[in-house]
Amino acid sequence: MRHLKSVLAAALSTAALVAVPATTATAAPAPVAPTSVAAAQGYTAYAGSPQEAKANKAFFEAVVKSVAEKRAANPSAAAVTVVYSSANAPTFRSQIARSAQIWNSSVSNVRLQEGGNPDFTYYEGNDSRGSYASTDGHGRGYVFLDYRQNQQYNSTRVTAHETGHVLGLPDHYSGPCSELMSGGGPGPSCTNSQPNAQERARVNQLWQNGFAAALAKVS
Question: Which residues belong to the signal peptide in this entry (predicted)?
């Protein structure tokens, strides 16, 4: 969702933002492939980068590996479940829960569930790159939710979009508002937080075929 920043440059220069929530949450680890292109360009003309795509892919692969390892240890589990923690993003707990609900009602081959020993973690804070999904360089995935971005854009859309990366979807900023992974491309007026039919089908495909391949490697 860092592209969400690209349309804020003019507005941020003249409009005051609401107060940033205070938090004592643990800071997110530095991303393995930080993407400061948006900051370097002043949030203008930013439409993603190879580094961002690489970080998203690494994040998804880390989550799949973590889930596959657990499944190999407990092969009788009824469903493929991705466990998350929102403990380090208390400000966005309701949006995170809503995003999990949205995805759980949209796809059938994978389920998101909050719990201990998580496959990925949500963090919150301030970052010039906006919200993003990445890894800590040690095989663990996390989603960072930026305060300012969530004040300017529909927070559930931001969170559901970033959660889409958990499930393997890339950014597609040129897409319409009806496409969740178009992120900030359609502008702040877009409040859609639901994946479209193509996005739902892709996630189901990834977690049927891609997960099976990952499971074979760790079993």
Answer: 1-27
Q: At what angle do helices 93-106 and 197-205 cross, to 10 degrees?
A: 80
Nearest Cα residue to 196 out of 161, 166, 162: 161
> Can you give the pTM of this predicted structure?
0.74
Distance CA 208, CA 83 (A): 17
**How many other CB atoms sit within 10 Å of the CB of residue 140?**
18
Is position 69 annotated as part of the catalytic site?
Answer: no
Confirm if 123 and 25 have CB atoms less than 8 A apart: yes
**DSSP for residue 114:** E
**Amino acid, single-letter form, for residue 60:** F
Among 52, 61, 114, 162, the one annotated catalytic: 162
| Enclosing H/E stretch for 81 | strand 81-88
Are the beta carbons of 200 and 107 closer than 8 angstroms? yes
Q: What is the pLDDT of residues 129-138, one digit of tens each?
A: 899 988 766 6
Please compute the mean of the pLDDT values over residues 144-150 and round it to a whole number. 96
